[in-house]
């Protein structure tokens, strides 16, 4: 039997584990059998809430060479590894007609509840065992141990901006979580500091918890080992190691705050889930919900990039709160007019475009970070990642679940054809386009998920209540 060596390298000390990116000159990479290891595949789902200002989102031409739009412009540096998909529909899944219960949820709960699992909220409660999100369905492939131990965190669920203010006439879990495993909701982490600790001091390790409680840097625990490794590396890898440890140190510094961690604690969780955050400087300027949201957004982007780059996890779901306050971006807006209120009124499309473009800017920053790290096979982390971005609704006023905004990036290690195209399933869409385009029932959002499953060797032609098999335009 051939033994495969792990491609991963760790520094450890005082109960803290620091995963490192791929370093070709490290001794471990030269072991017999190391070349048989293939880089792991990753999956990430990103929910940008409240739909998009679709006239400023949709490219006017299909195929290659489409002209960028105000909202999609931030993707230009990574365009060749992105796919824009127009015209997908899951209205019949989100809003079954007639209502099975006679008491349907609101459109936000309906859209978020089925966002990554294609099982309706109406008629399928939170404990329905058929509700399995795509990230969890992919885990057997993503976390395969064929090339060493699986990552320390099976998956990560993140919620930016805290809980939504309302539950939209449904179980609140449907508007606050994306990740589900056979009817069990996987609660989101809302605090970047708590995510940092989970990534670098996982579990209930006593020494790690003590180091955190004593406000010690995790890098202090592994500094000696890092120095010992550094002398064995090539100049380029030594620079890469230095850049990585500097990044982690910078993240620690940015995460230092006074007060307690802002995290939703699952029922039955121990006291360690509410560990006080490390004291330190707050973001410059007056601290408001809006400025804290902006600060956390950038931190989460950096943490998610490190989590994939260093193989800490291979599955992430990321939900931006629908009621997040963008006053820092669209100045003069009071807290009484958060994103959802602004979207639902349709009163200021320019402000909505600015918010939408900001969210895509952060997604683009993450994709570029993943594309900057080269793996053992010469491809980048992004090349071995499947990234899906969508929304709970398409338009804030109509609150429809067709003509959905969708972005794919990465390519599932070659399993998907993500090559810079715009795939348009509504060829009759006029331009300038309306806020809500015509329905196309022939291609549904769930078929993107079925395509992703096929790309990972899971050959099923249904997912949740979605049918139709994979989309040929997405397959190589």
Secondary structure topology:
Elements: E1 9-13, E2 16-20, E3 42-47, E4 82-89, H1 91-94, H2 107-113, H3 134-142, E5 156-160, H4 173-176, E6 180-181, E7 184-185, H5 192-200, H6 206-213, H7 218-230, H8 235-255, H9 289-309, E8 315-320, H10 339-345, H11 349-371, E9 385-390, E10 402-410, E11 422-424, H12 445-455
Parallel strand pairs: 3-8, 3-9, 4-11, 5-8
Antiparallel strand pairs: 1-2, 4-10, 6-7, 9-10
Strand order of the largest sheet: 5-8-3-9-10-4-11
Ranges where pLDDT stays below 50 over 5 or more residues in a row are 1-7, 27-35, 258-281
- Biggest beta sheet attributes: 7 strands, mixed
Calculate the terminal CA-CA distance, rounded to whole Å.
33 Å
* CATH class membership: Alpha Beta
Secondary-structure-derived class: alpha/beta
The total of beta strands comes to 11
- List SSEs in N-to-C order: EEEEHHHEHEEHHHHHEHHEEEH
Q: State mean pLDDT (0 to 100 scale).
A: 83
């Amino acid at each position: 039997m051939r033994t495969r060596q792990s491609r991963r390298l760790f520094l450890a000390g005082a109960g803290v584990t620091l995963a490192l990116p791929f370093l070709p000159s490290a001794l471990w990479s030269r072991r017999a059998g190391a070349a048989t290891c293939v880089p792991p595949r990753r999956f990430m789902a990103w929910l940008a809430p409240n739909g998009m200002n679709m006239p400023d989102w949709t490219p006017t031409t299909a195929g290659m060479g489409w002209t960028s739009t105000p909202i999609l412009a931030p993707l230009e540096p990574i365009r060749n590894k992105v796919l824009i998909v127009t015209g997908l529909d899951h209205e019949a899944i989100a809003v079954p007609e007639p209502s099975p219960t006679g008491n349907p949820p609101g459109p936000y709960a309906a859209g978020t509840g089925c966002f990554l699992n294609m099982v309706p909220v109406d008629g399928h409660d939170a404990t329905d065992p058929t509700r399995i999100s795509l990230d969890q369905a992919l885990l057997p492939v993503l976390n395969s141990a064929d090339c060493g131990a699986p990552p320390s965190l099976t998956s990560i669920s993140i919620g930016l901006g805290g809980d939504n203010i309302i539950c939209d006439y449904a179980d609140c879990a449907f508007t606050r979580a994306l990740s589900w495993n056979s009817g069990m909701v996987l609660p989101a982490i809302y605090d970047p500091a708590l995510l940092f600790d989970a990534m670098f001091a996982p579990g209930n390790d006593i020494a790690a918890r003590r180091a955190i409680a004593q406000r010690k840097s995790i890098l202090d625990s592994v500094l000696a080992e890092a120095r010992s490794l550094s002398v064995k590396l090539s100049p380029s890898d030594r620079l890469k190691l230095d850049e990585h440890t500097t990044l982690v140190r910078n993240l620690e510094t940015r995460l230092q705050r006074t007060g307690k961690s802002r995290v939703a604690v699952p029922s039955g969780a121990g006291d360690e889930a509410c560990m006080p955050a490390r004291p330190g400087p707050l973001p410059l300027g007056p601290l408001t919900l809006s400025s804290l949201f902006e600060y956390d957004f950038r931190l989460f982007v950096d943490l998610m990039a490190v989590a994939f780059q260093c193989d800490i996890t291979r599955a992430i779901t990321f939900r931006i709160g629908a009621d997040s306050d963008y006053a820092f971006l669209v100045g003069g807006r009071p807290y009484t007019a958060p994103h959802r209120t602004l979207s639902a009124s349709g009163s200021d499309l320019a402000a909505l475009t600015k918010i939408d473009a900001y969210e895509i800017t952060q997604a683009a920053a993450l994709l570029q970070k993943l594309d900057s790290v080269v793996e053992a096979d010469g491809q980048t982390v992004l090349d071995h990642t499947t990234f899906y971005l969508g929304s709970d609704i398409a338009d804030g006023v109509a609150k429809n679940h067709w003509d959905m905004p969708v972005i794919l990036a990465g390519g599932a290690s070659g399993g998907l054809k993500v090559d810079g195209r715009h795939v348009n399933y509504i060829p009759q869409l006029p331009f300038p386009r309306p806020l809500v385009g015509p329905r196309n029932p022939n291609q549904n959002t769930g078929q993107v998920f079925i395509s992703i499953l096929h790309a990972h060797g899971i050959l099923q032609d249904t997912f949740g209540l979605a049918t139709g098999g994979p989309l040929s335009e997405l397959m190589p």
